[in-house]
């Protein structure tokens, strides 16, 4: 383990979201899922949306940009009032915002007018929690002034409870919100789309007594993410699963030591005076998690025999005396977290986040038919080399189904047909446009995917038209839905390996894209083993599978025409392919930059690389 990590179970989050949304829908209440507890992880947002939430709520602009870059195009709700300087950005990225101050709403109106838009606002009303909100006595005056602003529209009223002052939602205080909404509609002749009755803290009231008539919206984060661990204190709500997040750390030291410190003690670095009980000599462990990563007081060891003794900035100290069999250095200790610990761990840049999902994972290649999608001019070059025996050894049906695809449209249709019969698509073409067509077909069949791109060039030139040099750029940035691959393919799940040819414009675009790039310099420093393992982890993170694209321009093939000179070696390429076969759930493979007049050696070499990616091993 490289460092502490949080395992994020997307299937649990989806199931929790479904339980919440279905229960709320039965009372006519719409739910927006709140992702701020995960720093706006696109995988989490997609899981919530699959579970039935109608939009996503976020409080941080960094998270909203992250979600939008990943193609999350559902209604986006900004949960806290923006600073005046960011009014333009709010209007650009956010559909609805919670507001309580007239100067900010005026700035939003002006920004919206500059963009030729109308921005929706929910006016927050303070019902006693004393955080943000218009005081009820000032509500009508505020509404009257906001209605004079032509760049904003009052979409509803909302409130926040069980927060700063921990004021509980009740039928009395939420009934007041409903009454205020009705009064505003009658007095000003407007229809309010949302009457937002708070957060996860309103769910116990909804289950026990029902929310007052008129409340039609909730903003739910904790109950979906944590299964109500911090919402349903006394009695868990049975449909919710509390185990979506697991914090893991590695034991750095395991030794028997006294349970009482030796020497005079003082106040620690955090202003506390530690108190210890003499329990004799005990087996203690030191874990690579500290206060800089998490809130230790809000951790719950999954193994009940593990006791948390204390924490410093970098370490957790554990009592392991009762653990059987005894733990060793290098082993993992896991924890559940309450909301404060989750928030700290997800915010810490030192804690790796690993989303996982079992549902919808692609089947292994050996369980499938193989569908070869070949541009006609390459048929002779490929058919001259018979790999049927090797495919049969990999448990593919032979001969493989073969489609001749002269155009990108034909490639798209062929990949779609292959996926419908659970065949494994292998696309071979002279350029990357067939790869774009193949990926577009895949996005019609799955919810989320990753991409490992092994090539000397990134195809990320910020050009106006789609071309082999700009294919990946348009796949991420195009405003045309039929071209764009988001949200099924997020920049966070794309890895480029072996890059060595770029233009300044392309380099700038890549630096802003969120795509992970390993240049040849990175491979020289880290080694292919580390690079490909990182790539698989990134591309697989929270996805249903990974598409592999390979161009022989990435590899320095002996006796070749020179395109791969200075690239990764023959053995490094096989190493990458073998690791992908072992660790990644492959959805399909595309190969570009093969030509009809290529030497048999070049074609044979590329085919053997592909066989390695399909699982061929030496023994």
Tell me about this structure.
- There is one protein chain.
- The chain is built from 20 helices and 24 strands.
- It has 619 residues and is an alpha/beta fold.
- Strands 1, 10, 11, 12, 13, 14, 15 and 16 form an eight-stranded mixed β-sheet that branches. The protein has an eight-stranded parallel β-sheet with strand order 8-7-6-5-4-3-2-9. Strands 18-17-19-24-23-20-21-22 form an eight-stranded parallel β-sheet, sandwiched between helices.
- Helix 17 packs across helix 18 and helix 19 packs parallel to helix 20.
- The radius of gyration is 28 Å and the shape is globular.
- 47% of the residues are buried.
Topology:
Blueprint: E1 5-9, H1 10-25, E2 30-34, H2 42-50, E3 55-58, H3 61-69, E4 76-78, H4 87-93, E5 96-99, H5 102-114, E6 119-124, H6 139-146, E7 152-158, H7 171-188, E8 194-196, H8 203-208, E9 217-220, H9 222-225, E10 245-258, E11 281-287, E12 299-301, E13 307-311, E14 316-319, E15 332-337, H10 339-347, E16 352-356, E17 369-374, H11 379-383, H12 388-393, E18 401-404, H13 408-420, E19 423-428, H14 433-442, E20 449-454, H15 471-477, E21 489-499, H16 504-511, E22 516-519, H17 520-526, H18 528-540, E23 546-550, H19 570-583, E24 586-591, H20 600-613
Parallel strand pairs: 1-16, 2-3, 2-9, 3-4, 4-5, 5-6, 6-7, 7-8, 17-18, 17-19, 19-24, 20-21, 20-23, 21-22, 23-24
Antiparallel strand pairs: 1-10, 10-11, 10-15, 11-14, 12-15, 13-14
């Amino acid at each position: 383990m490289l460092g502490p990590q949080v395992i994020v179970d997307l299937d649990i989050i989806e199931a929790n979201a479904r339980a919440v949304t279905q229960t709320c829908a039965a009372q006519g209440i719409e739910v927006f899922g709140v992702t701020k507890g995960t720093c706006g992880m696109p995988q989490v947002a997609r899981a919530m949306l699959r579970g039935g939430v109608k939009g996503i709520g976020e409080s941080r602009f960094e998270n909203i940009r992250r979600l939008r870059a990943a193609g999350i195009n559902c209604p986006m709700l900004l949960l806290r009032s923006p600073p005046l300087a960011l009014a333009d950005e709010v209007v650009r990225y956010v559909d609805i915002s919670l507001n309580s101050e007239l100067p900010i709403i005026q700035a939003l109106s002006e920004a919206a007018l500059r963009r030729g838009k109308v921005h929706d606002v929910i006016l927050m009303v303070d019902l006693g929690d004393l955080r943000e909100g218009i005081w009820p006595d000032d509500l009508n005056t505020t509404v009257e002034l906001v209605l004079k602003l032509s760049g904003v529209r009052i979409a509803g009223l909302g409130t926040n409870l069980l927060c700063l002052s921990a004021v509980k939602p009740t039928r009395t205080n939420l009934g007041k919100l409903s009454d205020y909404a009705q009064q505003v509609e009658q007095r000003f002749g407007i229809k309010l789309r949302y009457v937002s009755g708070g957060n996860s803290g309103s769910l116990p009231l909804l289950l026990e007594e029902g929310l007052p008539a008129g409340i039609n919206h909730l903003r739910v984060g904790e109950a979906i993410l944590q299964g109500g661990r911090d919402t349903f204190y006394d009695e868990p709500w049975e449909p919710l699963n509390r185990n979506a997040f697991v914090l893991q750390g590695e034991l750095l030291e395991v030794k028997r030591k006294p349970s009482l410190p030796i020497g005079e003690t003082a106040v620690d670095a955090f202003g506390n005076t530690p108190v210890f009980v003499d329990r004799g000599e005990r087996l203690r462990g030191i874990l690579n998690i500290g206060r800089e990563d998490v809130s230790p007081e809000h951790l719950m060891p999954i193994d009940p025999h593990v006791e948390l003794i204390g924490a410093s900035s970098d370490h957790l100290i554990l009592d392991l005396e009762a653990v059987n069999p005894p733990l060793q250095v290098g082993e993992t200790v896991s924890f559940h977290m309450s909301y404060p610990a989750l928030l700290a761990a997800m915010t810490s840049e030192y804690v790796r986040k690993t989303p996982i999902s079992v549902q919808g994972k692609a089947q292994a290649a050996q369980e499938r038919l193989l569908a070869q999608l070949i541009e006609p001019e390459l048929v002779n070059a490929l058919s001259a080399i018979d790999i049927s025996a090797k495919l049969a050894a990999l448990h593919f049906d032979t001969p493989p189904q073969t489609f001749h695809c002269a155009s990108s449209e034909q490639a798209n249709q062929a990949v779609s047909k292959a996926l419908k019969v659970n065949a494994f698509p292998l696309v071979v073409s002279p350029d990357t446009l067939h790869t774009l067509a193949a990926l577009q077909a895949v996005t019609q069949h799955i919810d989320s995917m990753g991409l490992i791109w092994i090539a000397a060039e990134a195809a990320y030139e910020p050009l106006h038209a789609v071309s082999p040099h700009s294919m990946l750029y348009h796949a991420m940035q195009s405003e045309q839905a039929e071209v764009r691959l988001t949200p099924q393919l997020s920049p966070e799940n794309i890895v480029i390996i072996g890059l060595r040819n770029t233009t300044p414009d392309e380099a700038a675009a890549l630096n802003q894209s969120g795509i992970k790039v390993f240049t040849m310099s990175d491979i020289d420093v880290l080694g292919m083993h580390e690079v490909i393992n990182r790539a698989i982890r990134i591309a697989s993170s929270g996805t249903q599978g990974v598409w592999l694209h390979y161009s022989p321009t990435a590899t320095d093939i002996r006796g070749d025409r020179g395109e791969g000179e200075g690239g990764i070696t023959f053995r490094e390429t096989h190493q990458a392919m073998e690791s992908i076969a072992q660790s990644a759930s492959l959805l399909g493979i595309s190969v570009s930059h093969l030509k009809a007049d290529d030497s048999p050696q070049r074609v044979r070499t590329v085919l053997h690389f592909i066989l390695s990616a399909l699982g061929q091993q030496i023994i």
